[in-house]
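Data deposition worksheet. Section B asks for the primary sequence of the deposited chain exactly as it was used as input, without tags or linkers unless they were present during the calculation. Section C holds the resulting structure in token form. Section D is free text for depositor observations; keep each observation to a single sentence. Incomplete worksheets are returned to the depositor.
Section A, Depositor: J.P.
Section B:
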Amino acid sequence: MQRIGLLLVGLSTLATTRGSAQDATGTTLWRVAATTLATPPALAQGAAAAIWNPAQTQDSARLQLAFEAIQTPSAIDATGVIGTMRIPAGKIGHVGLIYGRVGLSDITQTTDSPDPTGSTVPVYTYTFGANWSKRLSGTDVGATVAFHETRLDVTSDSRWTLDLGASRSLGRDRFRIAAATHFFSSLTANDPAQDVYAGVEARIWQGPVSAGGDRVVIRGRYGISFAHGFTADHQLGVGAEFSEIVTVDLLFAREGGYGEGSWRPVAGLGLNIGKYRIAVARDAGVNELGSAYRVGVEARFK
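Section C:
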């Protein structure tokens, strides 16, 4: 997995440098968490998806709460959580709060031998920010201002980021295009501490599947992540929605890096039950590292 190679490079660099290297390591931890996304990041939707694209579709609920937990295979042993809250703010649009944390577990100190001393080395990054979104002339736009802190053992570094996003449906929801920055903090096109996302979605087919009027909508998707100092990531996927109750998503992602890229599959399942939406996703992994998982719950109170 290219993400792990980049993470190890960042961790080794931190022993001698701080600042930009530490920021890049924090963002790489978030890229590891993003391997569980079953849609391109730019096209992700829902309250928790505001951490990937600030421009989320306007919702009639008076309160949206979302929580997601991420677990990578034991060979990596990274865990993460995402929590968001969104409320309507009249003509302003929607406002909300975002919190996320990703960290590595089971890293212990050593001295002049490979045997651990028993002391744990803290390696994590967290972000906390405020989000705004609004529909303007048929286009959903949004922005997130966030504070980040990344820590490796006794060293830590912090920064502020400003992310912008947009999403627009075309041709009576036949197409959707979206773009967003991710942890943007420098006006460069090759900073490994940030990403730029873009994606397009097309409705392939829709129609009834039962005598009771149940309908299915099938969409094809393509996404790209770039401007991060190494080869772009590409995502190809398809999604099906059954009567606005069950969603099934399948994604094939080609991860860029400083070496040869690799493809990996991700599958996701969503279920709407009343005011709750439950989602699970699994990354099949590469190079026999094992699978990563994501479980999320979103609540909408009207």
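Section D:
The radius of gyration is 19 Å.
DSSP finds two helices and 16 strands in the chain.
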